[in-house]
Fold these 2 entries.
Entry 1:
Amino acid sequence: MAFRSIVARSAALCRRAMATEASGNTFPLTFGSPYKAIYDNSNVKQVDLPSTTGHFGILPQHVPTIAILVPGTVSIHTESGEVEKYFVSSGTATIHADSSVQILAEEICAVADIDENAVRSGLEAAQSKLSSASNEADKAAAQIEVDVYQSMMAA
Amino acid sequence: MATTWLRTSMTLTPSGARGMATLKDIETRLKSVKNIKKITSSMKMVSAAKFTRAEKALKPARVYGGGAAALYEKNEFSEGENKLYIAISSDRGLCGGIHSGLGRTFKALHAESPVKKAVVVGDKVKAILVKTMGDTYLSTFNNVGKKPSSFTDALDIAEEVLSHEFDSAEIAYNSFVNVVSYKPIIKPTPSAANIESNDAIFTYDEVDSEVIRCYQEFSLANIIFHALKEQEASEQSARMNAMENATRNAGEMIDKLQLQYNRTRQAVITRELIEIISGANALD
């Protein structure tokens, strides 16, 4: 699966752009998975997300870019100043010249909804699968599973 | 022999009293039309339920697909010579002209500038187009339309599409407008190489070919997923309407047949009475 290569790369070293609070400025964000649309062009203040080139924050007038998401937490600072945290498995993020942002993930889950025990047992199962994997493809698949679970734990 | 039988059974005016259908004939016909009505009205119910579900699923899919297509819409990408068409329909019929509408769009397109490569999803449109452009099929998918399609289905299709070379993948599907209308549209998505060679991409910071490749693969799957969902919603709404019309037509037919049945019955009774009365008269 070529698509899994998106997930396959582990998070690079953080090049965190510590974004300070924008001066009342907002930008339109679209954030969703195939079965769930969380934001549809609604205004937010800031978004932090994990990508193959490191974690980064998006404020209004961010330079246009394309990024590939890696498993991790997306934090969204809403217009009212609240911070919402979601776990994403993989996907893409696009920032356009007009400041609009699209974040599309294969799976989205609110961090508050993650069951820690389930993640822990899942991680153990994935790790044992990784150690027992015989061929390259199985190994890569198991590695992805481990990566996802580990970043879920971190969230 | 077979043809004669077919003709008589279709016109259904066997010899009876004064050339009219006998009571028995009308009764049989009435019964069968009533059964048809029952079937079409329950099919309508089923597709109405499926439609509600499909419409609900379409909402997030639309946001998602729109998000994936935003890069291609906000920037101008050249379409390129080497086009690969993806036709999205389903395996199931009885839904009005939805599949033939898409087929017509393709035929017109093919007549204008011949389609060279096509990936066809769903048996219906495959059968419609096989005569005109069957030799352009790269691969076909079936088993579409029984259950709502999942993101994995979209991934499978995208993977197949990506195994072929193209400058631009044109995704053709029926876009859902509202309950009574849908319209076939064709959405172009450029290939990774096409994106990379385009000046527009330089407005975006920090992109390398690996990022573009991942991005293009993922958004192709997203757009296909969106197309599948649009197709599903339009198909269910079209089927709902087709079945509603069929039910109404059957209803009209039942009314007419019922009237004819009553008239014939009355005629039979009158004739019998006349026979009895004239018989009694003859005895006097």
Note: Confidence is low (pLDDT under 50) at residues 1-17 of chain B.
Entry 2:
Amino acid sequence: MRVQVKCFATLSRYAPASGAVDLAEGASVADLLAALGLAQDEVKLIFRNNRHCAVDASLADGDEVRLFPAVGGG
Amino acid sequence: MDAGSIRDRAVPDARRGVLAIPLADLEALGVTPLDALACGVVPALWVRSAHSLNAEALARLARARVLVVGAGGLGGYLLELVARAGVGFLRIVDGDAFEETNMNRQLLAEPATLGRWKVEVAAERLVRVAPFCQVDPRAVALDAANAPSLFAGMDLVVDCLGGVDVRRPLHETAAAAGLPIVAAAVAGWTAVVGSERPGMPGISLLWQDEKAGDAEEHLGSLAPTVALAASLQAAEVVRFLATGELSLAGKLLHADLSSWEFSLYHLT
């Protein structure tokens, strides 16, 4: 299956060039992060199809995942 | 209050369909904007607001008491916007003085204000631009000891802090005080804005790990991003005070000014 991924702020360097990642059926967000080479503790908010989800949430073909680090400047 | 005197001095603004009274006449009569609004007369300085914020909404703004924590990048712009919109009371809390490195983005940082308390400089400006706004500057850092007195009597808290570690304690304190909170944060070209009601998780999920590295430390803080974030935050503040609607509660509005992506995410 293929999921669309965007990585924001300091995580942008982990964004796949094509904007998509191919994963095995039944893969979770944690599997996606591993495929991106992204440590779980760098990701502070995960959204799947615009809704907040946990790192162990499972993904489906066509899902859109958005990843944020801690953004705190003011 | 003499409703007849207020109406006598009011000038019909036919284009906008309101009765307006100039600032000088309010002062001459010794009446407040609330006195005028109660007579259906809009202070002239808010005539251009009156289509979107009617007399009732303007009166709610004039009666509102707001605690703004942080008077730096976000706070400098936010205070300007909400004071001009007509918020009647602003308590501003910040224990810092202006530094030269603030000048790339902070509205109130200028050579003449370097070394001065941010809250004092903010109060001086607000008195000039928003004569009916009562300002209560507190040059202290918010902490567990002073929080109860600083939160007392407020209707809303605005998180204009900088840094990850200081955010969660503020949001927890607001929730414990039963107050809604509107927050924003930036890093480089990234801005995020969101609100929380007591007991309802929201944008502070971003700051649960107080030891997390702040993206701002790597990407810095830029004037367009800070001003945009503060402006979005100010819109939420004004709309909440005027209508009671906290549109961004449980949500995260994200703006990426490098890709022009604006998205609204659901946190609950």
Note: The mean pLDDT of chain B is 96.
